[in-house]
Write a structure and sequence with these properties.
about 0% helix; 43 strands; 22-stranded parallel sheet; mainly beta; 2 domains; about 45% strand; elongated; 1 helix
Length: about 475
């Protein structure tokens, strides 16, 4: 048996976060993360939408220019002022150019967007919006500090950046009660840096923080983000989202969703889902919100994940080839399934629905539960750097393919028989009937494919506390 490293390709961006500011707005360049950078991918690399779907309203296919009750096209300041949108499709405050400092203001939008697609894709009807007048070369910056931002209309997203716009949001308090209204949102390549904000959303399809069509970059440092509505996630990425030292609670949806070739990188963050659906979703809908590619990446270091539902499992991957990296994340999972890779309700453009393909790498990580993989799906598991897995792998023997790598510092403890029809990589070769010291069978077996593992020579190997690693019975 040849030891081999699991070779995958993970791109986890390293971005500076918003400024810790006691002054109006962060300085140019923003605040660097603690210790200089976010953690990157594990040594050797790693392999591998919007806050709810847009509601009724049409539009969205062609660019729409935002409008504002107060519009700024050059450098300006707005302090201690109340601004309320009085017309549909108008922001309370809109920046189309320059750098605008907004502090200690009360901004409100009670009006409905005429198109929730236009609201999600271009920022139309957002309470605070930055959308450059010149779409090709123009920029617009908003430095927002200690503002109270409230949206009650349909599609009245709280803070929205589009195109080459950037918003730095510091100690803002955002409340959204209208449907299809996220707290913080970027699309079309917009960028938002968030420091210690408080966000509450209360209606459907209203994730706390999200990107939509055309992607965007959102960097979060601290804060509390809570959503109550159906189909509302703590984070929904069709772009690039980095978070650290922040807390997210979803009462009507997932902790996190990543669609298409996009990522979430979370460090020392705490996520909770109290909804009985699934904990984290990695998928591709082919709705056009994440049009490019089909590879999502979720990377977490430290912090916690708590899923209080029982359906589906903590991590659900479907209709996409995705990567999951976990390092020292505390996991509380009331479902018996930790990872579920299966065919779901989302379709491939060419041939209806397809299953999932998930590469999982764990370093210094404890996982418990069932790894379920259906006949349309594939999973690759890597346990390294002192990781511990307690549960079963493909216990129903349904997987199209499942493989695992176990290094010498890590351990597997079985709770039922497991079936691995892909490659098994251990730390060294073992003689027939030898005991594998870091797999505890507890009287259960791991059945392997001799075709995928010719070095095993169809031999049987013993596991700690009873059980064997042996060929699948058909062989």
């Amino acid at each position: 048996m040849k030891a081999a490293a699991l070779c995958l390709s993970l791109f986890v961006g390293v971005n500076a976060l918003a400024q810790n500011s006691d002054r109006p707005g962060p300085p140019p360049g923003g605040m660097p993360p603690q210790n200089g950078q976010f953690p990157g991918p594990p040594p050797g690399g790693f392999g591998g939408g919007p806050g709810g779907k847009p509601g009724p309203g049409g539009g969205g296919s062609q660019y729409v220019e935002a409008k504002g009750t107060k519009t700024f096209d050059s450098d300006a300041k707005l302090d201690n002022t109340e601004v309320t949108s009085t017309e549909a499709d108008h922001s309370a405050v809109l920046a189309t150019g320059g750098t605008v400092a907004i502090s200690y203001c009360t901004l409100t939008n009670p009006k409905d967007a005429s198109s929730t697609d236009d609201a999600s894709f271009y920022g139309v009807n957002a309470v605070m919006c930055a959308q450059p007048k010149d779409r090709t070369n123009g920029t617009a910056v908003i430095n927002s500090l200690h503002n109270k931002i409230t949206g009650s209309g349909l599609g009245s997203n709280g803070i929205f950046a589009y195109g080459k716009a950037e918003i730095n949001s510091t100690f803002d308090n955002i409340t959204e009660t209208g449907g299809n209204s996220r707290g913080i949102m970027a699309s079309g390549g917009g960028k938002i840096n968030v420091y210690q904000d408080t966000v509450v959303t209360k209606n459907g399809s209203s994730s706390c923080i999200a990107t939509d069509r055309g992607g965007g970059e959102i960097n979060i440092d601290g804060g509390l983000y809570t959503c109550y509505g159906a189909n509302s996630a703590g984070l929904y990425s069709t772009g690039n989202i980095n978070a650290r030292n922040a807390t997210f609670v979803s009462n009507g949806g997932e902790m996190m969703v990543i669609e298409g070739t996009n990522f979430i990188n979370a460090t020392d963050c705490h996520f909770t889902s109290n909804f009985d659906k699934w904990g984290v979703l990695l998928y591709q809908s082919f709705s056009g919100d994440a049009e490019e590619g089909d590879r999502a990446t979720l990377s977490m270091k430290g912090g916690s994940l708590t899923y209080n539902g029982r359906k589906t499992g903590m991590f659900y991957n479907t209709n996409n080839r995705d990567s999951l990296y976990l390092n020292n994340v505390k996991i509380v999972n009331k479902s018996d399934t930790i990872i579920n890779v299966k065919k779901g309700g989302w379709g491939n453009r060419d041939n209806a629905s397809r299953g999932g393909t998930l590469a999982v790498r764990c370093d210094n990580q404890t996982l418990k539960g069932v790894v379920a993989v259906d006949k349309d799906s594939k999973a690759t598991l890597h346990f390294g750097e002192g990781s511990k897995f307690e549960g079963s792998i493909n216990p129903d023997n349904t997987a199209k393919e499942v493989s695992f790598t176990l290094d010498a510092t890590s351990k597997i403890s079985l709770t039922e028989n497991s079936y691995v029809n892909g490659v098994i990589t251990l730390d060294k070769e073992y003689a027939a009937n030898a005991q594998i010291p870091n797999i505890v069978g507890n009287g259960h077996n791991i059945f392997y494919s001799p075709e995928a593992n010719p070095d095993f020579k169809k031999e049987r190997f013993n596991l700690i506390n009873g059980g064997s690693l042996l060929p699948i019975p058909e062989y």
